[in-house]
Amino acid sequence: ERRSVLAITEPPRFHSQAKGKNVRLDAHSRKATRRNSFCNGVTFTNRPIHLYEKVRLKLVAVHHSWSGALRFGFTIHDPSQMSSDEIPKYACPDLVTRPGYWAKALPERFAVRDNILAFWVDRHGRVFYSINDEEPILFHCGIKVSGPLWALIDVYGITHEVQILDSMFAETMTTARLSTARLSTCLPQSNHDSANFNNNELENNQVVAKIANLNLSRVPGLATDNHIIPCCPNRRQRAQGVPAFLDTDLRFHPTRGPDVTFSQDRMVACTNWQESNRTLVFSDRPLHIGESLFVEVGHLGLPYYGALSFGITSCDPSTLRTNELPADPDFLLDRKEYWVVYRAFPVLNSGDILSFMVLPNGEVHHGLNGASRGMLMCVDTSQSLWVFFTIHGVINQLKILGTVQSSPVTISPSGSPGGSQYDSDSDMAFSVNRSSSASESSLVTAPSSPLSPPISPVFPPPEPSGSKNGECTVCFDSEVDTVIYTCGHMCLCNTCGLKLKKQLNACCPICRRVIKDVIKIYRP
Length: 524
What we know:
Layout: H1 2-8, E1 14-19, E2 23-25, E3 31-34, E4 42-45, E5 53-62, E6 71-75, H2 91-95, E7 101-105, E8 116-121, E9 127-131, E10 137-140, E11 150-154, E12 159-164, E13 168-169, H3 175-178, E14 182-183, H4 191-199, H5 201-215, E15 252-256, E16 260-262, E17 268-271, E18 281-283, E19 291-299, E20 307-313, E21 339-342, E22 353-358, E23 363-368, E24 371-378, E25 386-392, E26 395-405, E27 431-433, E28 482-485, H6 494-501, E29 517-520
């Protein structure tokens, strides 16, 4: 019956009218490209999608200058009835907080060029997706299937261009096969994901409980009724490349999130995998310039995903109180101190060893199991800097192995130590803040806004030819027409420049120097 439906149904295309202002379609409406910025890429299919019909998307172009990836899902609202003014910048959270819209983010590790994403909804209202026809992943529940459903696709973040392929129909997910389906429980990858995550948290918890009952019995040594899984799982032998002798004077600071427990020597931080919300932990002293910090990750090995965030701050943790520590470290960006947060780590396994080192020029480099992975971010080294982490999901343990003071590092012209080519496989730092104005903090915390060292600023790559003066580094919509005094950087539109100037301790988004004035530039 499904094959006969497919034979008489035209393959889906992108809706020619209902799309974000940065979306450009090809002549056949089969390919959608986002022009400029990281947002305003919301699109829909031109016809309803049948139950079990796979919407198949090929990721044609992926640009790693942003953070976050494609969002996708379904809606009961006919795109033909939408005006362009009704389509917001983001599918998550702008659309999913409205009735009749369901969408979530594709994990960034799957957002690889030429990957083929297929997603579909079954008669029970469950959404599954697969990558390159591999095993399906349970993605969403609770979709209303009593009426027509249109596919919702947000060409967001690192996803730059997608192409709709011909449809196929999925097999029915039997109970036996559902027990082997993985569950997509990725934590929010950006502040724009947070509302979507919270909006679906209850639903996800219910699904987690159901899948856990099916899968916990498969994990050796775990009973199905075990609700608190001990931290400190068995760890593999220490990876090669980690120094044999490490200083152990750096520990976790006593100030920590309420959902974290420390070992007696404060070298190990553990969480409960089901109740790990407020899990901020800090180092008990600043990290020295040229000093490498080594930490080991503990992972439960269950079929769920975990998340690890890393950050650097000038805030002394002893000045913080436990009740001030949020679940999402982005909420700390409204404080007056210097904060940098990084999220986009690759999938980590139990026993993986991460290293972090701050170079004299402000570059923060990291390594995995003794292998260098390149630069994570650039920071202001003119002040003392503490490191911090958040631990979520089945990444339930973080152990400080120790530190080692490196010999002076020679910085090559390319910015990587020892002349090695920049080889980081991840995105830039998530967000930076030097302002204490909560109402205006969004001006300087846009996702993956270009960040440069405090010395010798590095400007964003050249804009596409369609943008005359480049995009404002704050709103990513308007053209740059304002210069900052005294540093001279021209990176803002006049509207954002005036708002930024009003902030207390306002500083340039590029070099962090204090803003004394903003001057509008008029071109012939």
